[in-house]
Each structure stands twice: as structure tokens, then as C-alpha cells.
Amino acid sequence: MQNVKGTYDFFGKEQAVRLKVRGVLQEVFELYDFESMESTVLHELDLLTSKYAGGDEILKEMYRFTDQGGRKLGLRYDLTIPFAKVMALNPGIKLPYRRYEIGKVFRDGPVKRGRLREFLQCDVDMVGVGGPEAEAELMLIAVEVFKRLAIPVTLRWNNRRFLSEILGAVGVPAEECLSVMLTLDKLEKIGSDGILEEWGDKGISGSAVEEIAELMAMHEPSFGLLAERFGLKESQGAAEVRVLQTLIDKLKLSDICRFDPFLSRGLSFYTGTVYEIFDASGVYASSIGSGGRYDAIIGKLIGNEDMTYPAAGLSLGMESIMEMIRDRPFPAQAPKVVVLSIGDTRGDALMAAAVLRSGGIRTGMEPAGRKLKKALASLESRAIRYALLIGEEEARTGKVRLKDMRAREEYVVPLDEALYLLEKNET
């Protein structure tokens, strides 16, 4: 018996840490006024394989099957297409609409550190904001999340429209621009030589390949240099880059959010700004978050490309984050008090625990019949401060025996007074 490759069960300390991370994400998302959503995991295959969806690269990794009714279905490979479907099916949703979703997605791809086949994705998206303030706000969210998680990050960003303009200026045909950009996304994986070889196989002219190779050999060419070199100062893509950079400077994010003219992202639906988040310390090489603007998907899904649904999103990967923080010391979750039944008092013990829990006190139960000395020693070894003992005498008199094992004090009091003492004293 074993788990399917690339899938894991989470419990104990690791699950406790995952829940803490999830709590941080949810708190930040709601602080920025995004509301929670749960979209469906199962989708019709036509939606997931639509030419407006993720593109050929992601479709290679999609789980697909046929149900008993002969319908062709697939498991979602991200949370963006399901969100676009929700917007398309619910035209009455008032814009701008801001949602977050934390849910599992599935990809039948290679398994490596931080990359599984069943993994938790954490997304925030807004629809109805066409200006760069949307991207700027999503960058602020990313910075805030990783600040709270004490993970130093670098956010690399680019604009696909501007990149497309550069490619056009060096002679790449318009119909090949998207394909060339998606190849650029493999730079970290196959290197510049592999990129150039793949472009040659696609029939890109030698002069275009040579000029792009020259650009790639430059160390972080600036936006200004590129706009000047290719005569793009007044282009639409250059204007979008310039305005977003102004906002980034205004928000004092320039040290974290850095322009990268070769970043393209591997999904085909992005239309403007794209970004990826990396560990600034260099310990973890893969991205730990990504996103961008995808203005065209929703209109195309509903068959009305003239209807504008400007949209931008940010996606954070739980598995990548966990790789960054798994070895940190996290305090184990433990009850504040454990109730012990002595003699034939199990019913009284359960009732006492129920009262404490209704008062908001995290309460554990010790198995009946265990020797008292061993039970108390076990609680001390787990750093549990309070033990609440109920023997037959306590049950008869309507009281409980509350032991403070840190202060070495003991109180024989009514249950409501024990609850007051537990609420009053910190663990």
C-alpha cells in the first residue's frame, strides 16, 4: 500500500504548520478586501483544453478521463480557468470583483522538490480593474505575505505586450511571438543555448535569433535601454511598463520588484504584466509564486471577445512555501488543559470537558484507567500546564481538582471557577 507518486498525506506538526501558513495567507487576502470562493475541481474537458485556456505545455500534464455517462472531463490544473468560468457563468457579479481561493489542483508532471502532482494553490484575483493599480496591489499582497512568513523574496516582473514589441522589432513574425515567449519561459530549465536551438527548430530567422541572443547575454538590460534601442518609447507596451514602474517606485517596492525583460510565464492566456516570486536568499531555486494580467479569457469563454473583463491575479504555491519553512522550529499545538477521569467518572469528565470547550478552552481527554502518576508525568513531558482531575469525591461534591503543574499549585473548586481560572491565566 502506498501513495500515488507526487501525492502526500499531511498530519501532525507538518499539517499544523500548513494551517498556520494558510491562516497567514487568508488573513492578508481578507485584509486587502478579497472574499473567499470555492470553485469546482471537475470540469468539462472542452473548457480546460480551450485554445483560450492554459496552452499546449500545461495540457500535457492534465489529468483527463471519461465518466459513466460518457462525458469527457478533466481535473483542474490551476485556479484561474475555473475562476474565469465562474465569471462567465455569472454575468450578474458586480465589478470590480475580488476573490481568493485556496484549493487543490492536479498536474501529471515531473515530481521534484516543491513540485507535486496534487498540490495546494493559493490565489487572489480581481476582475474589472484595467489599470496598473491592480498589479501594484497584488505585488503589495505578495510582499506582505512573505514579510509575515519571514521569507526574503524577489519579485521579477515583465510585460508581455512590451516583450512582443521587442520580438517584432527584431523580426519575429507576429504569429510566432507567443510561441517564442513560451520558449523563453524555459530559460532556467534549458539555458540560453537550448532556447536558441528551439527557436531555430521553429524556423525563426537567424538574424532575429542572433539579436535576441545578444540581448540575453546582457546583464539585466534596463527598460530604458531596450525602449531606446528598438524605438519603442511611445509604444503601448512601453507605456504600461513605465506606469507600473512609477507605482512600484511610489510604493517603495523597487528593491523587491525588479523588471526582467525576458520573463514571459509558461501559460498562454497572459496579456500584459506577468511576474514570478523567488527566494531572495537563493536557497530555493524554483518560483514560490507567480501571476499576471489576463484580460481576454472571460470574454472569449462566453463567446464575446468585444466584452472586456480586465483581470489580474496572483498565485502562491503552498508546497514551495513549505519547502522554505519546514525545518523551522514551530511550537507544537497542545491543549491548555487535559481532563483526567479517576474511578468511574467518565461521564462527569466528558461533561466537564464539554463545558471548558464551550468556554473556548482547548481541552484534551486522558484515557480512563491510566495510572495517575504516569498520566501526570505524560502531561508534563508534553508541556501541558493544567490537569483537571475528577474522582468520585469530586463528582459527588460537584467540584473539580485543577492542578497547575508549572506553579505546583492545586485548586479544588466548582467547574465554573476552574473555567474562570483557565481563562484568566495564560498558558
Secondary structure layout:
Elements: H1 12-31, E1 35-36, E2 42-44, H2 45-48, H3 56-59, E3 64-66, E4 72-75, H4 80-89, E5 97-106, E6 118-127, H5 133-148, E7 153-159, H6 160-169, H7 177-184, H8 187-201, H9 206-217, H10 223-229, H11 236-250, E8 257-259, E9 273-279, E10 289-293, H12 297-301, E11 311-317, H13 318-325, E12 337-341, H14 346-358, E13 363-365, H15 372-381, E14 386-390, H16 392-397, E15 399-404, E16 409-414, H17 415-424
Parallel strand pairs: 1-5, 7-8, 12-13, 12-14
Antiparallel strand pairs: 2-4, 3-4, 5-6, 6-11, 7-9, 9-10, 10-11, 14-15, 15-16
Helix pairs in contact: 1-5, 6-7, 6-11, 8-9
Describe the overall structure.
The protein has 427 residues and is α+β, with helices and mostly antiparallel strands. It is 41% helix and 20% strand. The protein contains 17 helices and 16 strands. It has helices spanning 12-31, 45-48, 56-59, 80-89, 133-148, 160-169, 177-184, 187-201, 206-217, 223-229, 236-250, 297-301, 318-325, 346-358, 372-381, 392-397, 415-424, and strands at residues 35-36, 42-44, 64-66, 72-75, 97-106, 118-127, 153-159, 257-259, 273-279, 289-293, 311-317, 337-341, 363-365, 386-390, 399-404, 409-414. The chain has an eight-stranded mixed sheet with strand order 1-5-6-11-10-9-7-8. A five-stranded mixed sheet has the order 13-12-14-15-16, sandwiched between helices. A three-stranded antiparallel sheet has the order 2-4-3. A hairpin with a 4-residue loop joins β15 and β16. The protein is elongated and about 90 Å long. The two termini are 41 Å apart. The model has no long low-confidence stretch (mean pLDDT 90).
